[in-house]
Amino acid sequence: MIKLKYLPLVFALFLLACKKEQxxxxxxxxxxxxxxxxxITTKDTLEFVLNNKVLGQGxxxxxxxxxxxxxxGDKIQxxxxxxxxxxxxxxxxxxxxxxxxxxxxxxxxLSNNIELTPVTNPENMGIRLRFSTTATDFYGGPVDIEIFxxxxxxxxxxxxxxxxxxxxxxxGAFGDFIELEPLTSTELFTKxxxxxxxxAGTKELPYTSMDHVFLDDPDNNYSDVISxxxxxxKLLSVSPSHYEEAPGDxxxxxxxxxxxxxxx
Length: 264
Fold this sequence. Notes:
Layout: H1 7-24, E1 31-40, E2 46-50, E3 53-59, E4 62-71, E5 75-80, E6 86-91, E7 98-105, E8 110-111, E9 125-131, E10 143-153, E11 159-170, E12 178-180, E13 189-199, E14 213-214, E15 233-240, E16 250-251, E17 254-258
Parallel strand pairs: 1-7, 9-15, 14-16
Antiparallel strand pairs: 1-4, 2-3, 2-5, 3-4, 5-6, 7-8, 9-12, 10-11, 10-13, 15-17
């Protein structure tokens, strides 16, 4: 037990130590609580590294690094485990205290700012588009994606298409947010949204040749109807259809995958 007469001295030493710490570090780093989540479309394993220490990994399509305390200003490296190649960084901001970073990686493009933008009208559906392909004859640049309102007569089986929106220069990163209004089908007409894809700045197919492109009607190569969910915000990844055993070939239609559930 400290005798009472020594307490003033102990307290003075304590204050001196506090003042010394403040002088040595007048602006102590601000602590934040960071969670990392996301999606990988390849078989790569990603590592999250800070000061040469691996904090966690993302693999088997999922990225999950549960809430961890970091200092504002920390720079977390994202690298591929196989070859330690750095593919991006996460800069830890000073606020808010609870932060979530949403990562998307397709083997080429890394995005660490994925957001699900809420719709302004609960009857609408929101989408953000990206494009990727393994096609041998793909020309290699961005594409334009045209969105059509599709209507099919259930008695005559005649279909009509009305262009409502063209999204320019779509790449492997998710583009701008778009809202689609609901379309009402009837007993006579089935309605929905479909898309076509062009080489950016043209109305041409995005291929250098047709050697590995097998389309019955190249001028009318539409996707299937986009699944519509009122009030939802979706991240749609668009790819030309192909057979699993021949990923370099292109056949009719497009694959449209919604990966938004990985970021909710």
